[in-house]
């Protein structure tokens, strides 16, 4: 079985839940192109890293989910709130960060250095995240609809979003769409998310 990223449920709101994720390490790649194909373009590089394309030729267990977010919501490593209404659409091709969550036993110091410099390791601090689950296809339109519903539900619950939305995919592409486990994740201010 594939290891899943650990978390604790803070509160169930019915249409979504808030979760506390511990600090974790990502192996990530930034790719250009449409939402639907970004994961496929990045997968080979990330899979290569965990199957031995690293400084110590170490094999690393595959984990779920695979994460994808718009890299245009990150400027010089600084998060921009998804609730800012006057952010204009970026010019040029779409860019996405696609990431594997490394097993919980690895830290940035203990994870092997990627052999390909396009694969970057990044430590994500502990965070509180709103999560909404959905099944079906991975189209941009379908994801966008679930993302907007989660944003509205988060605001209605009195929570404050503080990070970009993230697509979380748990199943391989050959899984029938109606059986797929997908999620929309949105970091929230922990001071607004108590039970």
Automatic annotation (TrEMBL):
This is Heme-binding protein.
């Amino acid at each position: 079985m594939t290891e899943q990223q650990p978390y604790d449920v803070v509160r169930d709101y019915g249409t979504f839940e808030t979760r506390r994720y511990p600090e974790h390490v990502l192996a990530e790649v930034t790719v250009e192109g449409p939402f639907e194909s970004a994961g496929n373009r990045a997968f080979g590089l990330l899979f290569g890293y965990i199957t031995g394309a690293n400084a110590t030729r170490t094999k690393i267990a595959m984990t779920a989910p695979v994460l994808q977010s718009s890299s245009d919501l990150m400027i010089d490593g600084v998060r921009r709130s998804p609730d800012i209404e006057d952010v204009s659409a970026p010019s040029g091709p779409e860019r996405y960060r696609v990431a594997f969550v490394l097993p919980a036993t690895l830290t940035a110091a203990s994870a092997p250095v990627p052999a390909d410099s396009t694969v970057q390791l990044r430590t994500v601090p502990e965070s509180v995240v709103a999560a909404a689950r959905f099944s079906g296809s991975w189209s941009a339109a379908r994801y966008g609809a679930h993302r907007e519903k989660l944003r509205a539900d988060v605001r209605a619950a009195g929570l404050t979003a503080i990070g970009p939305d993230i697509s979380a995919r748990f199943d391989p592409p050959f899984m029938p769409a109606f059986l797929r486990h997908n999620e929309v994740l949105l970091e929230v201010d922990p001071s607004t998310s108590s039970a």
